[in-house]
Design goal:
Blueprint lengths: L69 H63 L5 H17 L1 E4 L11 E9 L6 E7 L1 E4 L2 E4 L1 E8 H7 L6 H6 L1
Parallel strand pairs: 2-6
Antiparallel strand pairs: 1-4, 3-6, 4-5
Length: about 230
């Protein structure tokens, strides 16, 4: 009789079918319950890490800490300063460009308006002559008044009125006389009105200037007497 078997009986391997679909019936199998009533998963490692709950403050994203050396930190600061300086320079250049474009646009607009006003001066001269002869009446007078109102609103102004002090910068004197009624050179007659637009003179006024008599007497040299000439 042989003694007790020293080696335990060899255990047969255990085969578990973890397929989700039964190959015989084609039905979906329910997952087998694991320990503590939890459903087992056919995927190893499943359930070890639960999905992060965004509402849980303990699972909120934490700021990423990066260890930088002093040299790397200085380099990063230098690059940031260079980028900031570049941005400031580009911003200043763009602002200067915008101001230059706006200024050029205003100059071009003023030049275009001045050209139109200069072309209208002969028309305004005709209106002045018609008004002087009493022909600027009725509907024609109404149209003339509207035209003058429009150009005045745009900035056109007349120069050279009777009684103005003579200014050679805006007056063109074609005749000069004297009178005891004036104390300084004064415009007494206007042959043609002058005009200014945008602070610039488009055309001087053609006028007659009258000065005081004592000024003319002072400028006239006195004639020498015959006795003075003989004694000389």
């Amino acid at each position: 009789m042989s003694g007790p078997d020293k080696h335990p009986e060899h255990e047969e391997p255990v085969i578990r079918d973890n397929r989700r679909v039964d190959p015989a019936t084609g039905a979906v199998r329910e997952p087998a319950a694991g320990p503590a009533g939890q459903a087992s998963s056919p995927f190893p490692g499943a359930g070890r890490h639960s999905a992060a709950d965004p509402a849980d403050p303990n699972q909120a994203a934490q700021p990423l800490s990066v260890d930088l050396s002093a040299a790397e930190l200085d380099l990063a600061r230098q690059e940031a300063a260079e980028r900031t300086a570049d941005l400031q320079r580009v911003t200043a250049e763009y602002a200067n460009y915008r101001r230059r474009v706006d200024r050029d646009r205003e100059v071009q607009a003023a030049a275009a308006k001045s050209g139109v006003m200069l072309d209208l001066l002969p028309v305004l001269d005709d209106l002045d002559r018609a008004r002087a002869h009493g022909d600027l009446t009725g509907s024609f007078g109404a149209v003339a008044d509207k035209l003058i109102a429009v150009v005045t609103k745009l900035g056109l102004s007349t120069t050279g009125k009777v009684g103005d002090h003579f200014d050679p910068a805006v007056h063109e004197a074609v005749q000069f006389g004297t009178s005891a009624e004036v104390s300084e050179p004064t415009v007494t007659t206007v042959f043609r009105s002058g005009y200014e637009f945008g602070g610039k003179l488009l055309r001087p006024a053609v006028v007659v200037v009258t000065g005081p008599e004592h000024a003319a007497d002072a400028e006239t040299p006195k004639a020498e007497s015959p006795e003075a000439g003989a004694s000389a």
